Automatic annotation (TrEMBL):
It is found in: Cytoplasm, Cytoskeleton. The keyword Ion transport does not apply. InterPro entries: Kinesin_light, TPR-like_helical_dom_sf, TPR_rpt. It comes from the Eukaryota. Residues 567-592 are annotated as: Disordered. The keyword Transmembrane helix does not apply. Residues 567-584 have a biased composition (Basic and acidic residues). PANTHER family: KINESIN LIGHT CHAIN. This is Kinesin light chain. Keywords: Coiled coil, Cytoplasm, Cytoskeleton, Microtubule, Motor protein, Repeat, TPR repeat. SUPFAM superfamilies: TPR-like. Belongs to the kinesin light chain family. It comes from Durusdinium trenchii.
Length: 592
């Protein structure tokens, strides 16, 4: 893998016009300082004298913010420590000496690598990402033919292929391949050695991304137990295992179980790697995400800000990981209702990703979508629609009309149209998202079930109550089977079915569902979470409609009001709505 460092630089005083690269992947560098030293040692010294250390290091950090892997024929690649470029030969410069007579490597300094790529035609350089899957598949097949399916080199190549396939969303091919690799290692070793545990990790990560959470949990627990026994509780790989188990539990809705794991991973990584190491910052971010999912938005905010500050310091303000941190903080502020503060962060993430990754990169399209969501919440629906349509069109072009990421944008555009009252336009998009997810992810994937739920809610809004009910029941049954009875998504489906039944006048059937949703959200999310307060209001309104118990209904209306006051303050529009609801109830029943 060749790292493009100089962006096609043609400065002749070095070794040769061309692209200056290294034959190392990002994870082979011990830290960003080593990479900057390799690429810019002499220039950095000069700029430190001119600008000062801090400003110079920040400037150079942004220059190594991302990796573009490229494939070239060896004949046009010149490792100048071993092979002279034609111009070096012409000017009599030996290997390791540039055209200005400066040494690439000096005594007492870390050795550096510089590979100069010189291509006369565009087709001589290929983007390795574009042909990576086919290259890995050919490699695995060739090794299998030469060495056999069970040879360790073949298994490693197959595992690498499976990992790349999974990261591109091709779980149908990736999962059976990874299962075969793991089974082969288990048959060869018969014990939980470190090679087996690494393949367990790969499969657990794959199943987590594919939404197969129950099996992912089983494998993650096996992984953690095995690494604790083999490596000890504080080894970095053990802490990696703690982190993935925390992620699985979080997405299963087991938030209370996940929290001590995320805290353990964070404390361990900070102690072993340092407070600003990339893995430590990942743990900071994960704990913030957990707290956000628990509704503890004020506790999450300083963690997100710490993660962002650490990434800016360690990686630079334009590094893709830094931009992800910008994006995460913006989303949190949006959930807090701090829409004005969130918008410049959303735009910074989008503009940075457009610059660093390109306008059509999947992460860029996520930022387009996130800005659209924010604008929609601000009521700027026409602006939001333009961004939603941009994200959808570019995703269709880059990833295909059936890709899971494309389905996210289809779903979100449908939601905006529903919000605009364009129900007839929204319905075919919701149906397209559902059909696409059923086809690509399966009928029982959580994203598919979310589409089932969304279509049911749209039909409810259209007063097609009989059509909506089987969809709401399917969503609830699916979430219960896939995620468990107390997962937040399951409880949302319980809540939605209760609302539908109430609208149908089936109050007796709706009441136990209202109570179940409230009790579950109280337990899983906490008494002050916005979703919990929504369930408080729903039960109060149901009891109001039934005519009792009125004392309980009043108590619930009052609880919702106090919760809104704590979350938003006394003058927020949601708080004012809650106050009016209580006052209306009291006037109706003459209880206050």
């Amino acid at each position: 893998m060749l790292r493009r460092n100089f962006g096609g630089c043609t400065v002749r005083e070095w070794h040769w016009p061309g692209v200056y690269s290294v034959q190392k992947s990002p994870d082979e560098w011990p830290n960003i300082e080593a990479l900057i030293d390799n690429n810019y040692r002499n220039m950095l010294k000069r700029d430190i004298e001119l600008k000062g250390c801090e400003a110079a290091v920040e400037d150079y950090s942004s220059r190594v913010a991302f990796c573009i892997p490229i494939l070239v024929d060896a004949s046009i690649a010149y490792d100048v420590s071993k092979k002279q470029t034609p111009e070096m030969v012409e000017q009599g410069k030996p290997v390791g000496v540039n055209l200005a007579g400066k040494l690439l490597n000096e005594d007492g300094m870390p050795p550096r690598q510089c590979i100069v790529i010189r291509a006369e035609r565009e087709e001589e350089i290929g983007n390795a990402s574009a042909v990576l899957v086919e290259s890995l598949r050919c490699r695995a097949e060739a090794l299998a033919e030469r060495l056999g399916l069970e040879h360790s080199d073949t298994l490693k190549a197959s595992s690498r292929l499976a990992t790349v396939l999974a990261r591109r969303g091709d779980y149908a091919e990736a999962e059976p391949l990874q299962r075969r690799v793991l089974a082969s290692y288990e048959a060869r070793h018969g014990d939980e050695d470190l090679e087996i545990l690494m393949e367990v990790y790969h499969l657990a990560e794959m199943l987590l991304d594919a939404g197969k959470l129950a099996e992912a949990e089983t494998l993650s627990r096996r992984l953690l137990k095995g690494r604790e026994r083999k490596l000890g509780v504080l080894h970095v790989l053990t802490l990696e295992s703690v982190n993935i188990l925390g992620l699985v539990l979080m997405w299963e809705g087991k938030l209370r179980e996940a929290e001590p794991l995320f805290k353990r991973a964070l404390e361990g990584r900070a102690a072993q790697l340092g407070a600003n190491h990339a893995d430590t910052l990942t743990s900071v971010n994960n704990l913030g995400l957990l707290l956000q999912n628990q509704g503890k938005l004020e506790e999450a905010e300083p963690l997100y800000r710490r993660d962002l500050a650490g990434c800016e310091t360690q990686l630079g303000v334009m590094h893709p990981d830094t931009l992800t941190s910008v994006n995460n903080l913006a989303l949190l502020l949006e959930k807090q209702g701090k829409l004005v503060e969130a918008e410049p962060l959303c735009r910074r993430a989008l503009e940075g990703r457009e610059t660093q990754l390109g306008v059509n990169h999947p992460a860029t399209l996520q930022s387009v979508n996130n800005l659209a969501v924010l604008l929609e919440k601000q009521g700027r629906l026409e602006e939001a629609e333009a961004f939603y349509r941009r994200a959808l069109a570019e995703s269709e072009a880059q990833l295909g009309v059936m890709h899971p990421e494309t389905m996210i944008f289809v779903n979100n555009l449908a939601g905006l149209l529903q919000n605009q009252g364009k129900l007839e336009e929204a319905e075919p998009l919701y149906r397209r998202a559902l059909e696409g997810r059923e086809s690509q992810l399966g009928a029982h994937h959580p994203d598919t079930l979310q589409s089932v739920n969304n279509l049911g809610l749209l039909l409810k809004t259209q007063a097609k109550l009989e059509d909506a009910e089987p969809l709401c029941r399917r969503a609830l049954g699916g979430f219960e089977a896939q995620l468990g009875a107390n997962h937040p998504s399951t409880l949302t489906a319980v809540h939605n079915l209760a609302l539908l039944l109430r609208k149908q006048g089936k109050l007796e059937e709706a009441e136990p569902l209202c109570r179940r949703a409230l009790e579950g959200r109280d337990t899983q999310l906490g008494a002050h979470h916005l979703a919990t307060l929504d369930s408080v209001f729903n039960l109060a309104k149901l009891l109001d409609a039934k005519g009792g118990p009125l004392a309980e209904a009043e108590e619930l209306y009052l609880r919702e009001l106090k919760g809104m006051e704590e979350l938003h303050g006394p003058d927020h529009k949601e708080t004012r709505t809650s106050r009016r609801n209580l006052e209306r109830f009291r006037r109706k029943h003459a209880t206050g």
